[in-house]
């Protein structure tokens, strides 16, 4: 008897980091004979179709159109650019608490459309890559998977620094100060979300948490070299660490540069949020124009803001990042989890200049374990950048260490492991 094709519905948040690592797992599921489909916010359509997957856009229970939602988030990001230079503790009030309120708005607007769509799709499993709960998923009548695309700190433990803190686990005072302030500042958002969950018949969540673990399967993008020793280890039967979760891309051919065309090639990407900080990106371009390297720089949707480009710099709105990293010798990024993990997957040293969210956590951890340099934005990172690049490119011990990490991660076949684990929980 032929086994029927399993339908796995992915629901990533409307960010490229979550979307693209889900694509890697969906590619592996497709190779195993499953039918991956993507539920997406209407303003994020097209990303998944480019990789050959069916898309099901949510029609939000909101007076705003898809274009209005896109503009809402663009305005939210641009309003918050001034806070990107603050340390994590200050960002709790200026950025983190308002961000939770905005995220909760989207979750509430998504609930009814998501219920309707899941009833129509009838998936065998759902993969949620988000930071908040959606009661419709828990009530869909099939197993669901929590995908932790942010730092491992998202899953609390007494031996792990607080989520979004950028603190070291060895600095107990900094951890406690951040934890207390975070709980106080996010309490109104948490209480509002709790009322919504109760109205949906969904269990309450602990203080400061907006998403529960899945009772079936939880996937973590936290490679072996950067994992924390937890006070309470996560049970292996429900928590799977993915040492590599990188999508497949066609090969990338670097452009020719009028200057330094034989020099080391460095990729620069601060994600869609960081690209909105055009002033910072211009300062960075001015800084690297004086350096003896080639630079590929991702400027996102803001390409028209750059009239002149140095001879050793190439700008674009989009790069197939995994394919690009294969050609590079170093990566400058914001510490987003995809960039963080892909740098390790390809054995590249990194300069991490975070500006918000879990980038702070990843930057701190990467420097602690010796796989990157952390240059805080609130400490004039561009002044330290030339020295950091020269040191990393000359560091043979790090090169050897990262080569071992690359071999281990690429041998782990993380996307296939994730796909098999997802199929393993599908209802009969």
TrEMBL record:
<dbReference type="GO" id="GO:0016758">
    <property type="term" value="F:hexosyltransferase activity"/>
</dbReference>
<dbReference type="GO" id="GO:0017000">
    <property type="term" value="P:antibiotic biosynthetic process"/>
</dbReference>
<dbReference type="InterPro" id="IPR002213">
    <property type="entry name" value="UDP_glucos_trans"/>
</dbReference>
<dbReference type="InterPro" id="IPR050426">
    <property type="entry name" value="Glycosyltransferase_28"/>
</dbReference>
<protein>
    <submittedName>
        <fullName>Glycosyltransferase</fullName>
    </submittedName>
</protein>
<dbReference type="GO" id="GO:0008194">
    <property type="term" value="F:UDP-glycosyltransferase activity"/>
</dbReference>
<dbReference type="InterPro" id="IPR010610">
    <property type="entry name" value="EryCIII-like_C"/>
</dbReference>
<keyword id="KW-0808">Transferase</keyword>
<feature type="domain" description="Erythromycin biosynthesis protein CIII-like C-terminal">
    <location>
        <begin position="283"/>
        <end position="412"/>
    </location>
</feature>
<dbReference type="Pfam" id="PF06722">
    <property type="entry name" value="EryCIII-like_C"/>
</dbReference>
């Amino acid at each position: 008897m032929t086994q029927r094709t399993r339908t796995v519905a992915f629901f990533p948040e409307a960010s490229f980091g979550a979307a693209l690592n889900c694509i890697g797992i969906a590619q592996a599921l497709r190779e195993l004979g499953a039918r991956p489909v993507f539920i997406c916010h209407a303003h994020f359509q097209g990303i998944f179709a480019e990789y050959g997957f069916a898309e099901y856009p949510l029609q939000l229970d909101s007076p705003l159109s898809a274009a209005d939602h896109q503009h809402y988030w663009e305005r939210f990001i641009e309003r918050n650019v001034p806070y990107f230079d603050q340390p994590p503790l200050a960002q709790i009030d200026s950025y983190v608490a308002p961000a939770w309120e905005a995220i909760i708005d989207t979750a509430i607007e998504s609930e009814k459309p998501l219920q309707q769509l899941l009833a129509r799709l009838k998936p065998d499993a759902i993969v949620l890559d988000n930071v908040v709960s959606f009661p419709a998923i828990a009530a869909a009548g099939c197993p669901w998977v929590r995908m932790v695309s942010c730092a491992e700190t998202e899953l609390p433990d007494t031996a792990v620094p607080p989520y979004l803190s950028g603190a070291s686990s060895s600095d107990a005072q900094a951890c406690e100060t951040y934890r207390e302030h975070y709980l106080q500042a996010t309490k109104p958002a948490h209480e509002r979300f709790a009322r919504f969950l109760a109205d949906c018949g969904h269990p309450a969540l602990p203080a400061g948490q907006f998403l529960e673990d899945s009772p079936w399967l939880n996937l973590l993008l936290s490679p072996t070299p950067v994992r924390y020793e937890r006070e309470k280890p996560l049970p292996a039967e429900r928590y799977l660490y993915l040492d590599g979760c990188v999508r497949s891309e066609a090969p990338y051919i670097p452009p020719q540069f009028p200057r330094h065309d034989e020099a080391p090639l460095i990729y620069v990407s601060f994600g869609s949020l960081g690209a909105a900080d055009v002033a910072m990106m211009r300062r960075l371009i001015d800084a690297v124009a004086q350096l003896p390297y080639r630079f590929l720089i991702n400027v996102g949707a803001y390409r028209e803001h750059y009239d002149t480009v140095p001879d050793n710099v190439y700008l674009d709105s989009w790069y197939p990042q995994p394919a690009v990293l294969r050609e590079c010798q170093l990566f400058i990024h914001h510490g987003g989890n995809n960039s963080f993990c892909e740098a390790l997957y390809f054995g590249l040293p990194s300069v991490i200049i975070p500006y918000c969210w879990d980038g702070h956590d990843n930057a701190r951890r990467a420097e602690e374990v010796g796989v990157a340099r952390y240059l805080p934005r609130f400490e004039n990172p561009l002044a330290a950048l030339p020295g950091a690049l020269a040191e990393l490119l000359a560091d043979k011990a790090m090169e050897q260490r990262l080569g071992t990490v690359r071999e281990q991660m690429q041998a782990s076949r993380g996307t296939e492991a994730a796909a098999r684990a997802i199929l393993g929980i599908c209802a009969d």
